[in-house]
Write a structure and sequence with these properties.
Blueprint (H helix, E strand, L loop, with lengths): L8 E6 L6 H13 L4 E4 L11 H11 L4 E4 L2 E2 L5 H15 L5 E4 L4 H6 L7 H19 L7 E4 L4 E5 L11 E3 L4 H10 L2 E2 L8 H17 L8 E7 L6 H15 L3 E5 L3 H26 L9 H4 L13 H4 L10 H4 L11 E3 L4 H12 L5 E4 L15 E4 L6 E5 L4 E5 L4 H8 L4 E2 L10 H7 L6 H4 L6 E7 L5 E4 L5 H10 L5 E8 L1 E2 L2 E10 L3 H13 L5 E10 L2 E10 L4 H8 L8 E10 H4 L18 E7 L4 H12 L3 E8 L21 E7 L5 H13 L16 H5 L2 H14 L16
Parallel strand pairs: 1-2, 1-11, 2-3, 4-5, 5-8, 8-9, 9-10, 10-11, 12-14, 13-14
Antiparallel strand pairs: 6-7, 15-16, 16-20, 17-21, 18-19, 18-20, 22-24, 22-25, 23-24, 23-27, 26-28, 27-28
Helix pairs in contact: 1-9, 3-5, 5-6, 6-7, 8-9, 18-21, 21-22
Amino acid sequence: MSDYGHDLRFGAFLTPTAHDPERVVELAVLAEESGLDLVTFQDHPYQPGFLDTWTLLTWVAARTSRVEISGNVLNLPLRNPAVLARAAASLDLLSGGRAALGLGAGAFLPAIAAMGGPALTAGESVTALEEAVEIIRGVWRAGDRTPLRVRGKFHRVDGAKRGPAPAHDIPLWLGAYKPRMLRLVGAVADGWLPSLNYIDTPNLQESNAIIDQAAREAGRDPREIRRLLNILTSESLSTQEWVDRLVPLALQDGISTFLLGSDDPDAIASFGREVAPAVREAVDRERARVGTPTGLVRPAAALALRRTGIDYDAIPTSLQGRAVEPGDREYEDLRSTYIWEGRPGLILRPADEAQVTDALAFARRQDVPLAVRSGGHGLSGRATNDGGIVLDLSALDSVEVLDRERRLVRVGAGARWGDVAARLAPHGLAIGSGDYGDVGVGGLGTTAGLGLLARSYGLTIDHVKAATVVLADGRTVRADADHHPDLLWGLRGAGASLGAVTSLEIEAAEVSDVVFAVFLHDASDTAGFLQRWGELVEGSPRKLTAFLTLTRQGGALIAQTLVMWADADTDAAVTALEPFLDLAPVLSQQAQLTSYAQVMARAHNPHRGQGGGTGELRSRSALVPHLDDRTAKALAAMFDDGHTGLAQVRSMGGAVADTPADQTAFAHRDRAFALSATIRPRTGTRAAEAARAWDEVGDDAIYLSFETHDHEAVLTRAFPPATLERLRQVKRTYDPDNVFHGNFTVTPAA
C-alpha cells in the first residue's frame, strides 16, 4: 500500500473519432471549462476511423488555454523519436508549457507492420522505447552544445543538433504492464500510465513495487514517478460512488492522476465539477490525519548539487513552483548574466511584490550572498554570484501608460527596454534607455540610464517620478516627492544598494521618428581620432547623441559610431551628421529615418556569460570632462600596450548637465563623456599594469554600471564626498543591516 503524496489531478481520455472531428475538440474544451487538469487522446495511427493524434493535439492546444495535453499513449514505432522530441518541444512552446508526452512501445504489432513500421518482437519494442527516451531527452537538452549521439539497435542519431528546449520540463509517461516495461518506468520515466480495465488492484500494488524497486536501483526516489490511471467506464456513478472508488486508489495504490475514459459530455462535466473536488477533499483530509508528506520531490542527482548555507526545505511555498536550483532544466539559462558566468545555489523568481517580500525574508535567513537581477545584461556582473541566492525580477515586466497627457508611464523592474519602447511607440512616447533593447529596467533605471537620447532628454533617472521598492525589513513603500523623498533621491543613482525596486514611474518624452546613423572609421590615428570625435560631439546640437566603440580587428583599430538625432527633421540631421565623414577614413556609413522602438528592439539573446566568465574579464569605467589630448592618448595607449581590445565612449553633456548635481545620487553632471573598457586578465602583474594605465585615462569619477565589483575604492569615485555621506544616511534609514551589499557596498552611516 502506497501514497506518494502527489497532488491529485483529473483529466479526460477521449476518442479521436474522425467522422465528427469537431465533437472531440468540443469535448476537450468542455473538459477545460469543467475544471479538469488535462486532456488526453488515444493514438492508433493505423486506425482509419481516427484523427491523427498529433494534429489533434495542436488543434486542441490552440482552442484551450489552461489544460495540459498529451497522447495516451503515442505509438512510438510509427513516430521517429528525434522528430517527436522537436514536435513536443514546439507544442510546449506554442501552448505556454502545457504539453506532456505519453509513450507506448506499440502493442498491435501486425497493424504497425502493415503501416510500414518495424516488425519488432515485444522485447525488441521495449529496447526501442528505451533508446527513444534517451534520444528525446537528449534533444530537449538545448543547453548542451555537444552533438547528440545515440547509437542504439533500433533508433540512432549521430551528431544531431539539440533543441529547441521546451517551455517547461515536459513529463514523460510510459504505458506499461509487464515487468520489463515497469522496470523501465522506474529507471527513466516521470510517470506510469496504465488503464484500470487491463490491470486490477492487486496488480497495481505489485506493479508499483516493481517500479519502486527499479527507481531505487537507478538512484531515484520512487516519489519522482507520478502514477496515472485511465478509467474506461460507461457506468453512471454518483459523486459519492466515485469518491468511494477513487479515494482508495489514491491512498492505497498511489494513483494521483485519474483520467476518465468517456466521450459523454455530462460525465466529463460531472467528473470535473463534482467528482474531482470531492475526491481531493477526502484525500486531503486523510493525508492530514495520518501526516502523509506532500509536495515537490527532487531527484537525488539534483539534491546532490545543492549548496551549503541555503535551507532549501524552507523555501516559501509561494516561491517553490518557480524556484530554480542547480540541476534544474532552466538553471543553465538563468545562472549567468549576458557577460558574466555565475553558479548560484538558488534562483528565486517572484511573480509579484508579495513574493519579493517572501524571497527577501528567506534570503536574509541564509548564510550566502544575495544578488538582485532585473535584466542581467550589465557589465558589472553584480546580477549573479557563486553559491548564493539570485532574486530574479524578470516576471515583473509590466508596461503601463498611466496618464498620456502627463506622459507618465509605470514599468516593472523586470521589463526589458526594447519591450518598453515597443509598448510606448503607438503613443508617440519614448524613454531614454541605454543603447540595447535587452537591458533590464531595474538596473539601468536606478543607476543612471545613459542612452541614445541622453543629450536631448537627460538620463533615465532624471525622469523617474516615483518608485515602488521592497525594503530589507519586508516593507513595500512608494518613494516619490511626497513619500520618502530621501529614498527616491538615493534610488536615482544608487538604487540597487537600498532595496529591491519592483517598478518605476517615469515621465516619458514626446518622440516621433528619429534619424539613426552608423559610421565605421579606420581609427589607426587613435588619439587624434578620439580628440576630433570628442570635439565634434561636444559642439553638436543637443538633438544629437553619439556612442563610439573601438575594437581591434586583426591589426587594425576600427571605430563604430552610433548617432541618434532625436526627431524626424532629416535636413537638420544631415547637417549634423556630415562632419562625421571628415573625422577619419570612412569604411562604411548608413543613416535612416526610423522609430526609436526599432533602434531599441529586443534581441532576446541568451545569457550565458559570453564574456568568458568571472575568472578572466573585468570592466573599467571613467567619467571625463572632455576627450582632450591627455585622455585621448591614454586611451589609445591601452590598445597599443595590449591592455584592452574593446573600449566605448558614450556622450553626456547637453540635457544631462541640466539636472542639478544634488538632485539625484548620480552627481557627476559636469562630465561630457563616459568611457569604459574590458580588460584581461583580472589578476597578476599585467592586471596591475592595466589598472595603472586606466587610471591615466581617468581616476576621479566612474559609471557604476560599467565597473566590475572587484575594483577597490569605487564608492569615492562613483559619488562625490557630500553625495556619499548623504547616501550613507539614507542607507542607515532604509537598510541599516546592509542587506543590499551585493551591489557596491555602501556602509550605513554610524
